[in-house]
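Consider the tokenized backbone below.
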């Protein structure tokens, strides 16, 4: 009888251990499956070779391209871009090109933030900076952080450059009042 009792206790302990091992293994499989689903969701959130086109009510055309785009989970109208290039074709056929390392594009209102190594070119003008906020609704390009503006005649260094898109009216200023915008002439003839 004693051997029988030992055998029953052994079977009970063995059964409990077996059940615990099976439960542990199935819970691990569920965790791994969830990780796989989360990774797949993340991969599905990335878009390769992004292109957005829009035309405003004044007939200006906007084209934004990027190597990759990642949709914001919390705000699906926001797309984070990398290796960004944009072209703005104004209704007077003036072309503005913009390149940057990164961008943030709003699919609802088409506003775009360009950041890191921003280069803006139009006609004989080139602007470099680290940040640009482009807004169709406000009709502005607000360029800031290490702004250098070059054209055929001048090189201008400032904190901020604000350009009205349709009129091309430009404001150039510094954040601090005691600082001055630095303007250098490319054509030095002794009279400047």
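A designed sequence for it:
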């Amino acid at each position: 009888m004693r051997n029988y009792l030992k055998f029953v206790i052994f079977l009970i302990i063995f059964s409990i251990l077996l059940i615990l091992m099976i439960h542990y293994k199935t819970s691990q499989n569920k965790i791994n499956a969830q990780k796989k689903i989360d990774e797949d969701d993340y991969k599905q959130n990335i878009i390769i070779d992004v292109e957005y086109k829009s035309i405003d009510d004044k007939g200006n055309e906007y084209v934004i391209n990027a190597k990759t785009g990642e949709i914001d989970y919390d705000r699906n109208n926001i797309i984070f871009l990398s290796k960004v290039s944009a072209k703005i074709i104004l209704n007077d056929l003036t072309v503005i090109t913009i390149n940057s390392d990164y961008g943030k594009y709003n699919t609802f209102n088409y506003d775009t933030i360009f950041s890191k190594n921003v280069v803006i070119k139009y006609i004989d003008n080139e602007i470099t900076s680290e940040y640009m906020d482009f807004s169709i609704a406000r009709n502005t390009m607000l360029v800031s952080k290490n702004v250098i503006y070059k054209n055929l005649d001048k090189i201008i260094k400032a904190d901020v450059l604000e350009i009205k898109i349709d009129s091309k009216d430009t404001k150039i200023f510094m954040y601090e009042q005691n600082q001055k915008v630095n303007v250098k002439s490319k054509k030095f003839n002794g009279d400047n």
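The helical segments are 2-44.
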